[in-house]
Amino acid sequence: MKPALKFILVFIIGLELAFVRSLWLNILTIFAALLYLFIKKISLKKYLWLAIIGIMPAVGSWYMYFNLSSDHSEIFAWIMATRVYAYIFLGSIIAYSQTTTELMRSLEQDLKLNPTFVYGILGALNFLPKMDRQIKIIKASGKMRGVRLTIFSPQLYMKAIYDSIVWSNNLSQAMYAHGFLEGAARTQYNKKPLQLKEISEFFALIILSVLAALIK
After folding, report:
1. N or C terminus of the chain with fewer C-beta within 10 Å?
2. Is the distance from CB of 209 to CB of 13 less than 8 angstroms?
3. C-alpha to C-alpha distance for 116 and 182, rounded to whole angstroms
4. CB-based contacts of 28: which residues, under 8 Å, 6+ apart?
5. Contacts of residue 85, Cβ cutoff 8 Å, sequence gap at least 6
6. CB burial class (10 A; 0-12, 13-18, 19+) of residue 18?
7. For the range 106-114, what are the long-range contacts, defined as Cβ-Cβ under 8 Å and sequence gap of 24 or more?
8. Closest Cα partner for 32 from 205, 177, 157?
9. Which helix (H) or strand (E) holds 86?
10. b/e for 102-134, b at 16 or more Cβ within 10 A?
11. Could you tell me if 69 and 76 are in contact, meaning their C-beta atoms sit under 8 angstroms apart?
12. Measured at the alpha carbon of residue 138, what is the angle toward residues 132 and 140, in degrees to the nearest 5?
């Protein structure tokens, strides 16, 4: 399924989880997400990471809704606890089953998202590794002058923001040098139009998710 359709599907199922109080729906969502991730062959390390990061929010939700609610409903506490993992595994489908470039390219081609916005987002994301290296360089430069820069040091962020502005200007000049014009019609290097099969799968999954939400 195209990343854009997958993104919309995950968003709709997320809305269902938010408005439907159903332990069955939460467990089904977790199982379906795990099955999809298994088919995509993500590593065991990522499964463990997803399980670990949900422990504290899930335990906290169970404790809060069981002990602090007026009726002390154990079922409701389990619904809220499993909802945490349902959202985590649902989000992991977007995070682990395609790259950010594939997702943004699909949003631009299939949902007609503004190309300038898409290229701007991709440009900013490509700067993140460079920004990480630059922060390490700034910290090392500070140590050479006897100044210890931490995450609470304003000097660290001022220098990083200044470097980001310089990179942003360089990126703009490079885009215009390659013929980019804001608002102009653009062609795609590797265009893959939506297939009828993908659209059918999308609506079938939407109908199944609605039917699952209606089951009590």
Report:
1. C
2. yes
3. 6
4. 212
5. 26, 30, 54, 58
6. exposed
7. 106/2, 106/3, 106/4, 106/7, 107/3, 107/4, 107/7, 109/4, 109/188, 109/191, 109/192, 109/193, 110/2, 110/4, 110/5, 110/194, 111/4
8. 205
9. helix 74-96
10. ebbbbbbbbeebebbebbbbeeeeebeeeeeeb
11. yes
12. 105
Distance CA 66, CA 128 (A): 41
Cβ neighbour number for residue 46 with a 10 Å cutoff: 13
pLDDT tens digit at each of 216 positions of the chain:
888 889 999 999 999 888 888 888 899 999 999 999 898 888 889 889 989 988 999 999 888 888 877 777 888 889 989 999 999 999 999 888 888 888 888 888 888 888 888 887 887 788 888 888 888 888 888 888 887 877 777 777 777 788 778 887 887 787 777 777 777 777 777 777 778 888 898 899 889 888 888 876
Query: Rounded to an integer, what distance in angstroms lies between the CA atom of residue 125 and that of residue 123?
Result: 6
Would you state the structure tokens that stand for residue 9, as one six-digit string?
């599907």
User: How many C-beta neighbours within 10 Å does residue 8 have?
Assistant: 16
Task: Give dist(CA 191, CA 109) in Å, integer.
Answer: 7
